[in-house]
Amino acid sequence: MRRLIYCVLSSTNSERKETIVGINSQPVRFLKFSSLSAAVSSFDASQKSFDINSMITYHRVIEGLFREGAIIPFRFKTLLDSEEDVESLLKEKEHKYKDLLSTLDGVAEMGIRLVKEKPVRSDGSRNNHKSEITQDIPNPGTSFLKSRRAFYSVAAWSKDQQNEFGDLCARQFQGLFVNFKSEVSPLPEVQNRKGLTMISLYFLVRKDLIQEFRSRFQELKPIIRDKIMLSGPWPPYNFVGHL
After folding, report:
1. For the chain, does the N or the C end have fewer beta carbons within 10 angstroms?
2. Closest to 5 (Cα-Cα) out of 77, 93, 98
3. Are residue 69 and residue 143 in the same domain, yes or no?
């Protein structure tokens, strides 16, 4: 059977007495190399897909281990062929994982999401791909060029909003985080609202400062006119890079 990896943690933190139940009711085991351990469970190679319950179980295992100490969470569905392959991975990336665990010790991830709508232009239309195409159907070449200009205009606006909101939050939460990242993504039309963009910020926050982080978020909310949401604390999914 293949091995499904949940996370990497220190060997000290992996010394447990109770059994952890993973996906498909398989027990979670800890494969060790040096001072590292990988939390894994067996996975039937004939099974071709994961369902929603598998994803819930996967993250429940990770969050349970995270409550007990620093971990490096892996992406859902990370599979290796054998225990030997898992141990080889720990050996190959031993120094990287040790450094990362040191960085992640005592911190958690907090997330902020902001949904913004691109303002309507002065002519009453929105600068988006669909509206530009329908205005010039007889000339496909011109239509394509207009759609490209509209796309880059929306992308440029979204990037500006991402930078502006990121700078605002960096000032608002100054002194409470050790690192932060941001990303922006378009959203589908919702209740006839077009041009929706979601800006996501991820903060690596010391666990003893999480309540202060929440308090400052409450101070931030009244000055933001768009929909804004706070979540966390989470395992540091967005700060582990490519594993």
Report:
1. N
2. 77
3. no
Q: Which of 53, 83, 104 is the last residue of a domain?
A: 104
66-to-39, 59, 121 alpha-carbon distances in Å: 12, 10, 47
The answer on pLDDT for 125 being more than 70 is no
φ, ψ of residue 217 to 5 degrees: the values are -65, -40
**209 is in which domain, residue-wise?**
107-239
Whole-angstrom distance, CA of residue 240 vs CA of residue 116: 28
Name the 3-class secondary structure at 233: strand
User: Are 125 and 50 in the same domain?
Assistant: no
From CA 33, how far away is CA 11, in angstroms rounded?
Answer: 8
Residue 132: its pLDDT value, please? 35
Its pTM stands at: 0.79
- Is the confidence at residue 185, as pLDDT, over 90? no
Q: How many domains does the chain have?
A: 2
Separation between Cα atoms, residue 145 and residue 151, nearest integer Å = 10
Q: What is the pLDDT of residue 225?
A: 86
The pLDDT tens digits of the residues spanning 14-57 come to 777 678 999 999 999 999 999 999 999 999 867 767 889 999 99
Last residue of a domain, one of 80, 104, 128: 104
